[in-house]
Design a protein that fits this description.
CATH superfamily of the largest domain: P-loop containing nucleotide triphosphate hydrolases
Largest sheet: 5 strands, mixed
Number of strands: 14
Structural class: alpha/beta
Distance between the termini: 20 Å
Strand order of the largest sheet: 1-4-7-5-6
Number of helices: 15
Oligomer: single chain
Strand content: 15-25%
Low-confidence stretches: 168-203
CATH class of the largest domain: Alpha Beta
Number of domains: 2
CATH topology of the largest domain: Rossmann fold
Mean pLDDT: 81
Helix content: 25-40%
Length: 396
């Protein structure tokens, strides 16, 4: 990267510790520093990381050091092994006043174990121990699979996400980042981003901004708010239900198919295509004229996985709303609806026993998104989300 970055990580601090405090052999558990603790499982074993009181202080000091460097105006690449969502939350809280990009790096367990043996400087079994702990409940801005993606693809994904998150960093396309977390102080921001050149006729065509999220995430509210703020035409998936088809039993569909293309929304796809071409379109249901405004805000619950409509999406935004918040919103919305499976207790039991997997956003889906927003319980949060999206669009 052309913008100068400081690389700081937990390994650098461990290297500053007295060697006698740590034990990497797995034979003698360190009382104060870091060490490997053997865990037996059936006929095999693996190693978990033991963290003593001095090691805990080192880990805490890393966050403090990063914060001070960020406050001094440095751009940073932070390389850390954080165990689970709790640690990620601590990092986010530490750097809450700065622009950050949290990058998770993973690979299949069998690949990690092969790499572990090949490296020769790691105790065999430590990869398995960390595999089930590092990413547990952790939420990243982007998750990279270093087995299915080569280093160039990983680099491209990070650079693209930096640009989409409005973090203006001068990038040298030949440079490669291997960091697992990146922090950018305000002083590193640039109000201008490089954009690809295009003809005036193409640039004047509408851009379709799709809003994705589980039921109860707040897609409709945000779509309406953005439509008003941007004076943009809004398209709602549910409006096309009467003239479209899809699975009736969602739980059965999830168990047997899971193919979102089972939803046949041909008229919706046609409307999106014609708007994208710059044509005025008469809504097939209301006969209302839909105008090809600069932005078309599309309430798109199936995102880029729905082939027929995905081809017209320019930018995909995910509202990542906690499952409990979305559930409560659905119950409140449908309290007098035939959609409920009886009493609220029956509905909660049905959710726990059958339907909960339908509402979990997987990592592949997250990777397809251009911007991820954190959904909140407060109704007033839509104003903050709207301002965030408008700012992002203005810089993209």
């Amino acid at each position: 990267m052309e913008t100068p970055f400081l690389h700081i990580g937990i390994d650098k601090l461990i290297g500053m510790m007295p060697a006698k405090l740590n034990d990497w052999t797995g034979k003698n558990i360190s009382k104060d520093g870091f060490g490997w603790k053997q865990v037996k499982q059936d006929e095999s074993c693996y190693y978990e990381l033991f963290v003593g009181p001095f090691a805990e202080k080192i880990s805490s000091s890393l966050k403090t050091m990063v914060l001070h460097l960020a406050e001094e105006g440095y751009s940073l690449m932070v390389d850390d092994v954080s165990f689970g969502g709790t640690e990620i939350i601590k990092w986010r809280d530490t750097l809450r006043n700065f622009n950050t990009l949290f990058v998770g790096v993973t690979a299949p367990l069998d690949i990690l174990e092969k790499r572990e043996k090949k490296r020769g400087d790691r105790i065999v079994g430590s990869a398995r121990g960390q595999y089930f702990a590092v990413h547990n409940d952790a939420k990243y801005d982007i998750l990279l699979d270093t087995h299915s993606m080569n280093i160039e693809q990983c680099l491209s994904s990070v650079i693209r996400k930096l640009e989409l998150l409005e973090i203006g960093v001068e990038v040298n396309s030949k440079s490669i980042s291997k960091s697992s977390r990146v922090s950018f102080p305000e002083s590193a921001l640039s109000s201008t981003l490089a954009s690809s050149s295009s003809s005036s006729s193409l640039s004047s065509l509408p851009k379709i901004i799709a809003i994705m999220g589980i039921s109860g995430a707040g897609k409709t509210v945000l779509t309406k708010s953005l439509s008003k703020a941007l004076n943009a035409t809004a398209i709602f998936w549910d409006d096309f239900d009467p003239i479209s088809s899809g699975p009736d039993d969602l739980v059965k569909w999830y168990l047997q198919s899971r193919d979102v293309n089972d939803w046949k929304y041909d008229e919706l796809a046609r409307v999106l295509r014609e708007l994208k071409e710059g044509q005025n379109v008469s809504c097939p249901l209301t006969a209302k004229e839909l105008v090809p405004t600069k932005y078309i805000i599309f309430d798109a619950p199936l995102g880029r996985r729905h082939t027929a409509t995905a081809k017209y999406i320019d930018q995909l935004i995910l509202i990542d709303t906690p499952l409990d918040v979305a559930l409560v919103r659905r119950l409140l919305r449908e309290k007098n609806s035939a959609l409920l499976h009886g009493s609220i207790y029956d509905e909660l039991n049905f959710y726990l026993e059958h339907s909960r997997p339908l509402f979990v956003i997987d990592d592949e889906c997250r990777r397809q998104c251009d911007l991820i927003l954190t959904g909140e319980a407060s109704i007033t949060s839509v104003d903050k989300l709207t301002a965030r999206v408008v700012s992002w669009l203005n810089c993209s």
